[in-house]
Amino acid sequence: MQSRDINEEIIESLYAEALVLADDARAAFDLRFNDALGGSSDLTRVALSIEGLRTTTRVMHVLAWLLNQRAFHSGKLTLTQLERFGALPEEQSSDPDHLERLEPETRALIRETEELHARVARLDQKWQAQKEHQGTPVHLLHGRLEAAFAAI
Questions:
Q1: What is the mean pLDDT of residues 54-83?
Q2: 39 Cβ neighbours under 8 A, 6+ residues apart
Q3: Residue environment code for 12-33, b if the CB has 16+ CB neighbours within 10 A, otherwise e
Q4: DSSP output for 9-58
Q5: Is 124 in contact with 65 (CB distance < 8 Å)?
Q6: Pairwise CA distance, residues 118 & 8, whole Å
Q7: Dist. CA 71–CA 128, nearest whole Å
Q8: What is the DSSP string of 44-104?
Q9: Which domains does the chain show, CATH number per domain?
Q10: What does the pLDDT look like over 7-35, one tens digit per residue?
């Protein structure tokens, strides 16, 4: 799959979904306005802080990847720049012990961000694998030269 084969409609759809999740994560993990934490233990507050950081980082990585794709499709980023700076970082999984301390709605939000990251990671991995399979122009030329000299 060439990088241009990643459909722009898919990128835009994922981008819109990621923006909504980013806003939901901001609201869910903003400790200044979270009334449900009034009587919570310190461990619950720590769990919320840690998982909030993981969740927002996960969403920001997805958004950065999607923004790079959008820039490439609009011609503002070259293929070389996309290859160099466009990889999706690996996800930091949530801690099951922390998740047990959180509200069901917060756990559901975290799962949604994990699922979004997994979908984008599959797109990125497929593109990376195809890119490696195709090789660079220099490697392709070397392969053609080797084949030509092997036939002699």
A1: 94
A2: none
A3: eebbebbeebbebbeebbeeee
A4: HHHHHHHHHHHHHHHHHHHHH-GGG-GGGTT--HHHHHHHHHHHHHHHHH
A5: yes
A6: 19
A7: 18
A8: HHHHHHHHHHHHHHHHHHHHHHHHHHHHHHTTSS-HHHHHHH-PPPPP-PPPHHHHHHS-H
A9: 3-150 (1.10.8.930)
A10: 789 999 999 999 999 999 999 988 765 65
